[in-house]
Amino acid sequence: NEENEDAEDAEEEDDEELKRLKNKPKYQILKLTEAVGVAHFVVAHDLACRLTVRGAYVLNEKTNQIVRNRTFEGIDVAQALKLRSFAKISSFPVDSAAPAATSSDGDVEAAAKVDDEVAEGQAAAPAELTVEERKAIISANNRKWFGPSYSYTTDFLQVVSEDQPNGVWVVKYDASLPAVSVQNLYFNGSLFFYVPETATF
Residue 150 — left, alpha, or beta (φ > 0 → left; ψ -120 to 50 → alpha)? Predict the structure, then answer.
């Protein structure tokens, strides 16, 4: 009799566990502080909108570091009006095992934690590419964009013309400044500017 009662209790517990799992919400509501929300926005904005001009930085292959190109004298207006003349600093492939820079108050870590928590329960992401595979993809795309003028040491970043959806970036020239502005329409108010034929951006 005791064995039967134990078995019935175990079945009831199993049924309750199944009901609990079935009724579990498919999303999670998180209460966040404003600081975490702002930190998340800043990280997302920097990943999408932190730009440079083609040739302004070079890749030191020995150290795998990005350094300012001391010989960069700028590009002309005709080139500056092309999206492919601007690249995303954040696209530089780095080893994800390397320690990330963090803020002193931990907002960046909190924002990353929120991203991880929000991602839970979603479909599994495709296997991550290695650093070398990401470099190879960026290199192949840039060869397509720049043709014979392609150089691995200056064209190692993803150009903004690769971004989706098409039309998310807008380039304008204001002759009265004179400067070229590059705007990301997804981040309203975000603006990158470049003064043609100079190293000012």
Answer: beta
Q: Report the distance separating Cα 76 and Cα 43, nearest Å.
A: 31
> What is the torsional sign of CA 51, 55, 56, 59?
positive
Q: Computed over its alpha carbons, how large is the radius of gyration of the chain? A: 24
b (16+ CB within 10 A) / e for 52-84: bbbbbbbbeeeeeebeebeebebbeeebbeebb
pTM of the model: 0.64
Question: What is the token pair recorded at 27?
Answer: 């999303």
Q: Establish how many alpha carbons lie within 13 A of residue 41's alpha carbon, considering only the half-sphere containing its beta carbon.
A: 11
CB 153 within 8 A of CB 139: no
CA-to-CA distance for 120 and 138, rounded, in angstroms? 29
CA dist 155 and 93 (Å) reads: 13
Residue 105 identity (one-letter amino acid): D
pLDDT digits (tens, 9 = 90+) for 26-50: 777 778 888 988 898 888 888 888 8
**Is residue 10 within a helix (H) or strand (E), and if so which, with residue range?**
helix 2-22
Distance CA 10, CA 15 (A): 9
Higher per-residue confidence, 7 vs 199: 199
Among residues 111, 103, 104, the alpha carbon closest in space to that of 36 is found at 111
